[in-house]
Automatic annotation (TrEMBL):
Domain Nitroreductase: 28-194
EC number: 1.13.11.79
Keyword Oxidoreductase set for record: yes
Protein's organism: Chelatococcus composti
Molecular-function GO terms, alphabetical: 5,6-dimethylbenzimidazole synthase activity
Keywords of the record: Oxidoreductase
Protein name: 5,6-dimethylbenzimidazole synthase
First-tier enzyme category under EC: oxidoreductase
Record NCBIfam families: BluB
PANTHER family recorded: NAD(P)H NITROREDUCTASE RV3131-RELATED (PTHR23026:SF123), NADPH NITROREDUCTASE (PTHR23026)
Length: 222
C-alpha cells in the first residue's frame, strides 16, 4: 500500500489502489449470511480481535452504544434455541401454499452447529455521545450497532469465518435469558464459525425465496 504526500499535515492517509478495491468488492460479494457451519472451534482471541474491529465502526455522536455478549453457557444457548423454534413455528403459520413449503425447507439458523454465539445489544442508557445527533432521530443509536455488526461481519469473512444473523427470535425473552442490564436493547444474534460450504449467491436467492433487486429498483434521483 503506497503512501503519497499529504499537504494538510498530520499522518499520511493510506492509498487504496485498484487491486485493493477489487478485493474489497470480492469481500463484500462473498460476505454471505451463513447457516451451515463446521463444528471446529474458533480461537477466542480471533473473536475478540474481530469485535475490537467492530468497535471501530461509526456511531452517532461517537456514542459507541454496542454491547456484545459471548453466549457460551449451554443452558442459555438452549433457551435461545427454544426461543427460535417457537418463533419459527409461528412464522411458518403466516405463509400458505408453495411459499409455506419453501419456508419449511429453508435453513434459517445455525444455532446447533456454530461454535460461537454472539448477542449484540444497544446500551440506550449510556451517557457516551451526550445525545449528539440523535435528538430528532433517537433510533440512530440502534443503527450504530448495526454498523458495528456489519463491520464485524466483513472482518470475519476476511478471516475465513462465516456469520449468520438470526432474527427469528423474541427480543424480550432473549434479553431475559441472557440476563443483561435493563437499558440494553436487543439488536441481533450472530452465529459464527467456519462455513461447511461456500456459495457466491445468497442462500435465499439460490432456493428461490427472493432474488437480488436491480440497481434501478433501489436508486431514485431527484
Amino acid at each position: 500500500m503506497a503512501e503519497t504526500a499529504h499537504s494538510t499535515g498530520g499522518p499520511v492517509p493510506p492509498v487504496f489502489n485498484a487491486a485493493f478495491r477489487t478485493r474489497l468488492a470480492e469481500l463484500i460479494a462473498w460476505r454471505r449470511d451463513v447457516r451451515r457451519f463446521l463444528r471446529n472451534p474458533v480461537d477466542r482471541q480471533v473473536i475478540l480481535d474481530l469485535l475490537a474491529l467492530a468497535a471501530k465502526a461509526p456511531s452517532v455522536g461517537n456514542a459507541q452504544p454496542w454491547r456484545f455478549v459471548l453466549v457460551d453457557d449451554p443452558t442459555r444457548r438452549a433457551a435461545v434455541r427454544a426461543n427460535f423454534e417457537r418463533c419459527n413455528t409461528e412464522a411458518l403459520r403466516a405463509y400458505a401454499g408453495e411459499r409455506a413449503q419453501l419456508y419449511a425447507r429453508l435453513k434459517l439458523e445455525g444455532l446447533s452447529e456454530a461454535p460461537v454465539h454472539i448477542a449484540a445489544f444497544c446500551d440506550e442508557e449510556a451517557d457516551t455521545g451526550h445525545g449528539l445527533g440523535r435528538r430528532t432521530m433517537p433510533e440512530t443509536l440502534r443503527y450504530s450497532v448495526v454498523t458495528a455488526i456489519h463491520t464485524f461481519w466483513l472482518a470475519a469473512r476476511a478471516a475465513g469465518l462465516g456469520v449468520g444473523w438470526i432474527s427469528i427470535l423474541d427480543p424480550t425473552a432473549l434479553t431475559a435469558a441472557l440476563d443483561v442490564p435493563a437499558g440494553w436493547r436487543f439488536i441481533g444474534y450472530l452465529c459464527v464459525g467456519y462455513p461447511c460450504e461456500e456459495h457466491l449467491d445468497p442462500e435465499l436467492v439460490r432456493h428461490g425465496w427472493q432474488d437480488r433487486l436491480a440497481p434501478d429498483r433501489i436508486i431514485l434521483e431527484r
